[in-house]
Amino acid sequence: MIRVAFIVAVLLTLAGPAAAHHGGGTFDGSKELKLTGTFTGLDLINPHSWIYFDVTGPDGKVTKYRCEMRAATVLRRSGWSPEMFKKGEKLTFEGSPDRRRQFT
Fold this sequence. Notes:
single chain; alpha+beta; CATH 2.40.50; 4-stranded antiparallel β-sheet; 4 strands; globular
């Protein structure tokens, strides 16, 4: 019985950090952000892929953005490939912004 309790305690201790990493804690779920920009790059990597794009504001100023996505293995299984996107292509992104970065 003591051995089982010890194993359960170890598993619960290890589950906390794993859940924290895979949670949405870095995103502000109370806000929704929609940006339209020009595709500039894609990194299909693990554990998180990134898509890069430039947004031109009303004042003509270009701001560089990146969007965190799922792992490359998951995206590839869903049919994603680097050839899906062309440099300069217009894309629209919707999602929750990062808590640490301020968006206007």
